[in-house]
Design a protein that fits this description.
- It contains 10 helices and 4 strands.
- With 193 residues, the protein is α+β, with helices and mostly antiparallel strands.
- It has 3 domains: 69 residues, Dna Ligase, domain 1 (2-Layer Sandwich), CATH 3.30.1490; 45 residues, no CATH class; 63 residues, no CATH class.
- Strands 2-1-3-4 form a 4-stranded antiparallel β-sheet.
- The longest helix is centred in the middle third of the chain and has 30 residues.
- The radius of gyration is 34 Å and the shape is rod-shaped.
Length: 193
């Protein structure tokens, strides 16, 4: 590249920064061979600035239009966010019966930021149906089968040994088993969020 300098540009003495050190003095020709457009440069009459912002150096270091790159990155990010939110909405819509309503908001918020590998694991988490656990509780709750079904083995054994807490525990579970099932489902999905 041929460098044509005017008289004024030949008179300047430049310094540039590299690894926290000030290097110079250099004339313009020497400077151009040692720096890039992002290098911090100083000369008399200006403060430290990027080389591509100095009038006499702009022709050697054209500024890349970062607005195009930024706009493209922003569009990609927006598309990725929209896809993640859509994926979270689909998951919530298809699995809402497995969770309490106050849990759904937390799950949706966390699902929007889950990466692809974790997303695949979330979809394979086996969730128990609260209605099924209620039906089991009504017919087999005295034997603790409802608690075994949701993975609450300790309480299942307790109900089995006491014949459903002398049937009192069985009746209480008819009202609580669906909520307990939803809480167990929420606990199962938490490690993946």
């Amino acid at each position: 590249m041929e460098i044509n300098l005017n008289k004024k540009e030949e008179e300047y003495t430049y310094y540039y920064a590299e690894d926290g050190k000030q290097i110079g003095p250099l004339n313009l020709v020497q400077l151009i061979s040692k720096i890039n457009g992002e290098t911090m440069v100083w000369r008399e009459g200006i403060d430290w600035t990027n080389a591509n912002k100095l009038e006499e150096l702009k022709k050697f270091f054209p500024i890349v239009d970062s607005s195009v790159k930024t706009k493209k990155n922003l569009e990609e990010k927006t598309n990725n966010n929209a896809a993640a939110e859509q994926r979270a909405d689909i998951y919530i819509a298809s699995n809402s019966k497995f969770f309490d309503s106050h849990q759904l908001a937390q799950i949706r918020q966390k699902l929007a930021f889950v990466d692809e590998s974790r997303w695949n694991m979330i979809q394979t988490v086996p969730l128990k149906d609260p209605q099924t656990s209620l039906i089991i509780s009504i017919f087999l709750g005295t034997y603790g089968i409802d608690r075994f079904y949701i993975g609450d083995t300790g309480m299942g054994v307790g109900k089995l040994l006491t014949c459903g807490g002398f049937f009192i525990w069985t009746i209480v579970d008819w009202f609580q088993i669906q909520s307990a099932t939803k809480n167990k489902n929420f606990q199962k999905i938490q490690p993946f969020l």
